[in-house]
Design a protein that fits this description.
This protein is of the alpha+beta class. It is built from eight helices and eleven strands. This is Fumarate/nitrate reduction transcriptional regulator Fnr.
């Protein structure tokens, strides 16, 4: 039976973690995983609304999400919050601080969240001895950059329905990569946060969800989403038969 995406299960060491194919242990030998595991610090769960780190804070570690979810945000010049992304289990956070050595963004737990803290100085030292680990870190950074560029391109100058369709398909793909359902999943963030990320005001977000449900593309129960017509959602998001779907709105 297909599991609904809840993202609450993982193990307490790198070798047994079901998320290791998404994280630093991927492609490492058993011995190398043991060395990586020796520098990983596993924190107690972080409460909803708590900070993993804040913008301007000195960079010391990167973090791998084990359970829960995290949003990344920055403050705009006018003091408004801008949400730049959402992180799920298996994601590595804090990579954008490696160059400046100060965190450019703030990471906030969206729910009770467990992370693995990896001191960067120790990771660098270990990477000097384990080229495969160094290569895996570069792959993760490249993957994050590509995902950010791809999503940003798809969201540029698009109608509200198209933006929402794009981000739901992106979440669908991410849940599937974690062995969970690609069609039924729970969005961890509030509609307000999702609207902030998409550049849509709350009223538009509510109206957009409702219209997609009325068109038979989605089934919605609170934060739980079911993609009912995946072909239509893809057409709306990526442009095939876009005119026909827009007409239905």
């Amino acid at each position: 039976m297909t599991r609904i995406a809840t993202l609450s299960e993982t193990r307490s060491n790198c070798h047994d973690c079901r998320l290791r194919s998404l994280c630093l242990p991927d492609n490492l030998s058993k011995e190398d995983i043991g060395e990586l595991d020796s520098i990983v610090q596993r924190r107690k769960p972080v409460a909803r609304g708590a900070y993993l780190f804040q913008a301007g804070q000195r960079f010391n570690s990167i973090f791998a999400v084990r359970t829960g979810s995290v949003k990344a945000s920055t403050l705009l010049a006018n003091g408004d919050e801008h949400i730049s992304g959402f992180h799920l289990p298996g994601d590595v956070i804090g990579l954008d601080a490696i160059v400046s050595r100060d965190h450019p963004s703030t990471a906030i737990a969206l729910e009770s969240t467990s992370v693995c803290e990896i001191p960067y100085a120790e990771l660098e030292s270990l990477g000097d001895r384990l080229p495969t680990l160094q290569h895996q870190l570069v792959r993760i950074m490249s993957r994050e950059l590509l995902a950010e560029q791809s999503t940003g391109h798809l969201l540029t100058r698009r109608a509200a329905e198209q933006r929402l369709a794009v981000v739901l398909l992106k979440f669908s793909e991410r849940f599937a990569n974690r062995g969970l359902s690609a069609l039924r999943f729970r969005l961890p963030m509030s509609r307000l946060d999702l609207g902030n990320y998409l550049g849509l005001v709350p009223e538009t977000m509510s109206r957009t969800f409702r219209r997609l449900e009325e068109q038979g593309l989605l089934s919605i129960a609170g934060k739980e989403i079911e993609i009912v017509d995946v072909c239509a959602i893809k057409a709306l998001a990526y442009g095939n038969n876009e005119g026909d779907l827009a007409a239905k709105a």
